[in-house]
Write a structure and sequence with these properties.
The chain contains seven helices and 13 strands. The protein is of the alpha/beta class and 299 residues long. It has one domain: TIM Barrel, CATH 3.20.20.370. Strands 5, 6, 7, 9, 10, 11 and 12 form a seven-stranded mixed beta sheet that branches. It has a two-stranded antiparallel ribbon with strand order 1-2. The N and C termini lie far apart (46 Å). InterPro entries: Glyco_hydro/deAcase_b/a-brl, NODB_dom, Polysacc_deacetylase_ArnD.
Length: 299
């Protein structure tokens, strides 16, 4: 049922080619492998520090959201997310090869919502997340957001971290290593300056080049400590699944995009996001904060 296509960005301008799914689905190059590369598990668990701005300790608890707030948006309440695990299952190292993952190993019946690029800047979406307290992770693209960095600050203030998604959204495997590094490093610098914390996660556009040495080296040299892919991508009304049974699994990372009526066949971003929450609620999952399941290196 999903709309298939890609989003292209060039010279600071957003060019919508076919796009409800953007960097989530379309041709084979858009899909990350079903099995992510192994995690680097040698680093000891550490309290989160530096980068990411998760602010999860002070973020409002989703279980405090009254039923009326859900009803306001035409939604049923999501299950309550469990407390963050004391032993965070993904452990990042301070140096060396960065891991690539598309799901979090956990027994908790939770999924994680990630939203890419920043093309649509709908004030209603900010109000929706303020009301519902659903945690998201934002992977933002400099050329797409630079005209309005401020839009994302209220979302960050809710405890939603801002992560790296390149400067201009190229297919990384199709550009030289030096350009790959510039795409990651320049976005890293801009997001750090604008939002006060350095991203510690990176998502390659289309999932392209995620497991290549050139991209891994670029990510290492620019600062992020992991490459994050996804297991499902949200379309207008439904999700595309990598699993053959078309079901969510514990720890799945879901990809969505900042999109509006011109890409969603007339529907608003709040409507698309509501449909995403409906699909999650129907399968009995809670939405957890990705930062709460990742142990970052100290220092």
């Amino acid at each position: 049922m999903g709309v298939r296509g890609r989003i292209g960005y060039g010279a600071g301008a957003l060019a919508v080619l076919l796009a409800a799914s953007g960097c989530g689905s379309g041709g084979p190059a858009d899909r990350p492998p079903v099995s992510a590369a192994p995690l680097t598990g040698s680093a000891p668990a550490a309290a989160p520090s530096g980068g990411g701005s998760s602010a999860s300790a002070s973020a409002p608890a989703q279980d405090t959201v009254p039923a009326a707030a859900w009803a306001k948006w035409g939604l049923k309440p999501l299950p309550k997310a469990p407390a963050p695990p004391a032993d965070r299952p993904i452990k990042l190292a301070k140096t060396g090869t960065v891991p690539v993952f598309s799901e979090v190993p956990t027994a908790d019946k939770v999924v994680f919502i990630t939203i890419d690029d920043g093309a649509e800047k709908d004030p209603e979406f900010v109000r929706m997340l303020t009301d519902l307290k659903v945690p998201i992770t934002m992977f933002l693209t400099k050329d797409v957001i630079k005209a309005d960095y401020g839009y994302f600050k209220p979302l960050q203030a809710l405890g939603n971290s801002i992560q790296n998604h390149t400067v201009s959204h190229p297919q990384m495997s199709r550009i030289p290593a030096a350009q790959q590094k510039a795409q990651v490093c320049d976005d890293q610098a801009a997001l750090t300056e604008q939002y006060g914390t350095a991203p510690y996660l990176f998502r390659p556009p289309f999932g392209d080049g995620a497991n290549t040495p050139a991209l891994n080296t670029a990510v290492q040299e620019c600062g992020p400590r992991a490459v994050v892919l996804w297991r499902e991508s949200m379309q207008i009304h439904d999700m595309q699944y990598q699993a053959a049974d078309k079901k969510l699994r514990n720890g799945d990372i879901i990809l969505a995009h900042f999109r509006g009526p011109s890409e969603l066949k007339g529907e608003k971003m709040t409507e698309m996001f509501g449909e995403l929450l409906n699909r999650i609620q129907e399968q009995g999952f809670a939405v957890a904060r990705l930062d709460d399941y990742i142990a970052r290196p100290a220092g």
